[in-house]
Each structure stands twice: as C-alpha cells, then as structure tokens.
Amino acid sequence: MEEVRIIDLKESILADNDADAEKLREELAAEKTVYINVMSSPGSGKTSTILRLVEELRLSFKVGVLEADIDGDVDTRTMLDAGIPAVQLHTGGMCHLDADMSRQALAEIDSKDLDIVILENVGNLVCPAEFDTGAQINLVILSVPEGDDKPLKYPLMFSKADVVAVNKIDAMEVFDFNAETFRQHVAERCPEAPVFMVSAATGIGIHELAGWIGERAREILDLDSAN
Questions:
Q1: Which CATH number characterizes residue 208's domain?
Q2: How many of the other CB atoms lie within 10 Å of CB of 165?
Q3: What is the C-alpha to C-alpha distance for residues 191 and 189, in angstroms, rounded to an integer?
Q4: Could you say which of 2, 10, 11, 220 is the most buried, measured as most Cβ atoms within 10 Å of its Cβ?
Q5: Model pLDDT for residues 203-227, shown as the tens digit of each residue
Q6: What is the DSSP letter of 5?
Q7: What's the pTM?
Q8: How far apart are CA 22 and CA 135, in angstroms?
C-alpha cells in the first residue's frame, strides 16, 4: 500500500508568513517607520485607547492608523473625525492580519510619510497572536471587566506582547480584578513586557504608556530621545 503523504498546511503557512514578516520589518526600518500592532478582545477599548495614544504621540511623531475589521468602517470614521490619517481594512472574514496584508495596508496609507503606524487588529485573543504582522511593537490591551486570569487562558497572546495595557481601571471597584495577580500572570508569559494601568475614558495612565511607546519608537527610528 502506498504511504500516505501528510502536509501540515498551518505550519507551512505560518513559516512563510514569519519569513515575510521579517522582510517587512527590514523594509520598515529602511523607510524609518514604526509599526505597532494593537491586539485585544472586542469591547476592550482598543479604539478609544488608540485615540488617546495618538493625541500624545502626534506631539512628537507623524502618526497614522490602520483599522482592521471583518466588515464595517465605524472605527475608521472615528479616527478621521479626530483628524487622524486612517485606512479601513476588510479581512474578508479572516480573524487576523498577516504580513502581506500589512504590507498592502501600509502602502495604502503611504507609511513612508509617517513615523508611526498603529494597526488596530481584528478583535479577539486567539488568531491575531498566531500571525506575525511585521510590527516592531505588539501592544496587548485587556479591560478590567474581562478578568485578571486571561493570560492563563490565552497564553500565546500574552507571550507575544511587548507591552500590555489594562484599560477601564476607573471601573476597578465594580469588578473582581486583582492588578498584582494579573501582573504575575503576564510575567509568567512574558517577563520583559511592562504592564500599564490605564483608562481611555479618563486619560489615566495614557501619558505613561505613550511615553514608553515614544521611547521605543525613538530607539527603532534611531532618534535622540531628547528630541
């Protein structure tokens, strides 16, 4: 009997994407653009947090936003209404962006004219973590109502994080969320990732988070931090 040939398509697809993502990072480095991938579940406050961050970052950088959704353009309209360059991406039913999709989107927003491009990835804590977008910074946002145990339930997502933001801390008293427990869970997955407690509604902690992102961006862009 002929031997059955098995091809692991997922492994092959991920390997190809990882290679393309590295190539994209090289291209972004050459054009002096920082690409930030923001990941979270729906309702965590990605859009409102990004709005607050752009308010801070645009004081020193030229910033644009890519909004990825399966359908709709609500978040892009929000960005445009705030005077932020933005492009809507429809993923055709896919629950994530990959490196090639990112390359197409970056060309559409003309990333060469921007210092920082922020991607609001499709909202979920599973698929986006599996596909490298080519970003130099991965920001994971969790909201207080989701609970402090999410790094245990979605370990891959938090292991991919360069920085983590806990949003809606203004509602901390209403929910059973232990900040120290959450920090410990994140440290188990990614010890190097700092955790910022923020509120997009009130602005608490946004300045500190934007400061960390700004410093990292200056390192990537090879700029004097004093500028």
A1: 3.40.50.300
A2: 29
A3: 6
A4: 220
A5: 999 999 999 999 999 999 987 654 4
A6: P
A7: 0.91
A8: 9
**Measuring CA to CA, which residue among 162, 172, 156 is closest to residue 204?**
172
3-class SS of residue 139: strand
- Which contiguous run of DSSP H or E holds residue 88? strand 86-90
198 domain residue, yes or no = yes
Residue 163: strand pairing partners: 139
- The residue to which tokens 């929910």 are assigned: 175
Q: How many domains does the chain have?
A: 1
Residue 10 lies in a domain: no
User: How many angstroms from the chain centroid is the CA of residue 114?
Assistant: 17
Do the domain assignments include residue 1? no
Q: Specify if 171 maps to a domain.
A: yes
Q: What amino acid is encoded at 114 in this protein? A: L
Write out the residue range of the structural domain in which residue 215 sits.
16-221
